[in-house]
Design brief:
about 325 residues; alpha/beta; 9-stranded mixed β-sheet; 9 strands; about 40% helix; globular
Length: about 325
């Protein structure tokens, strides 16, 4: 049996509190043939010192130090230097189960797939020191073609949607990245990238095992006060709409429209509950975008509220108008 190398790319920026937990979870993988690439993105704390310390004890680790360019730049840099056929991205403040690599590689090879993914589990940072992944005997998985995988990104179920769109719970054949890069200078970089990889892949295998630990940090980007950067979330959806139109998939385009409307309602709600200074400016941007996207195409009952993430278009219309009127 051959044991192909897996390149694990870990962008590092000011994560001294979490980095040892992340690196320990990787060097203790049951699958040993790893190339661990640490990209220190100009850290100002002791993160680089920690990287170098681990590298001095494990020859599989290489450390690249650079000026601060952001997460996407670091991931792209890692792809450039990776020397293996398979690649995975792990955030430096997260952890993985000891069989993360072994399980995903087995699924990928045995099913002749291009991407293998697992489920993730949220971990409070206070629980990180003593955390143990759940011991599950569930080895079930689902095989998907590219369109089925794209459908999951815009799934009615929020858990399925998030699990699909993130890039860090997956193992990829590196050839998928030949003409695909992460968008430098953008946040929500997963939304710009994953759908392109899914469309390019011939087969995706999705495991039901929870092998990735997504650590919930109080200081994370997602927990910061409202700012204009929140509007950066709109551009990926414009890209989705253009993409689905180009490939002629009306079904996915309509699902994307509903997810887009939900996002606009969510951002407007966040805005109104914030202390942001120039609310009218952002409110107008969101209204113009909502008016552009919202085109009622069915007779819908606004009283019907499915037990899932996505509601009817008219539900979002009413919700959006309610938020606007409540803050005039």
């Amino acid at each position: 049996m051959q044991f192909p190398k897996i390149s694990i790319i870990i962008p590092v920026y000011n994560v001294e509190k979490f980095l040892p937990f992340c690196l320990d979870s990787i060097i203790k993988q049951t699958y040993k043939n790893l190339e661990i690439i640490l990209i220190d993105d100009g850290s100002t704390d002791s993160s680089l010192i920690i990287c170098n310390e681990y590298a001095s004890h494990d020859k599989r680790i290489q450390v690249i130090h650079q000026e601060n360019h952001g997460l996407s730049y670091s991931r792209n840099r890692g792809i450039e230097v990776a020397s293996s056929e398979y690649i995975s991205f792990i955030d430096a403040d997260d952890i993985v189960s000891s069989d993360f690599c072994e399980h995903l590689l087995h699924l990928l090879i045995s099913n002749n797939a291009d991407i293998a993914e697992c489920k993730f589990i949220k971990i409070n940072e206070s629980d990180l020191p003593d955390y143990t992944f759940p011991n599950s005997s569930d080895s079930s998985f689902v095989l998907l073609n590219s369109i089925e995988a794209l459908n999951r990104i815009h799934n009615d179920n929020l858990d399925v949607c998030v699990n699909s769109v993130v890039v860090w719970n997956k193992l990829y054949k590196i050839k998928l990245f030949k003409d695909i890069q992460f968008p430098v200078g953008k946040i929500h970089e997963d939304e710009y990238t994953t759908y392109k990889l899914f469309y390019k892949a011939k087969k995706i295998v999705s495991s039901n095992k929870q092998l990735y630990g997504y650590v919930q940090r109080k200081s994370s980007i997602m927990n910061k006060p409202f700012s204009l950067s929140r509007l950066d979330a709109l551009e990926p959806y414009d890209n989705y709409m253009t993409f689905f139109k180009e490939i002629g998939d009306t079904y996915l385009m309509k699902k994307c429209e509903r997810r887009y409307l939900r996002l606009l309602v969510l951002i407007l709600s966040e805005l109104e509950n914030s202390d942001f200074d120039n609310k009218p400016y952002v409110r107008n941007i969101l209204k113009e975008k909502f008016d552009e996207i919202y085109v009622p195409d069915d007779i819908e009952d606004p009283t019907i509220k499915p037990a899932n993430m996505l509601q009817s278009k008219v539900y979002y219309y009413n919700k959006f108008q309610e938020l606007l009127k409540g803050n005039e």
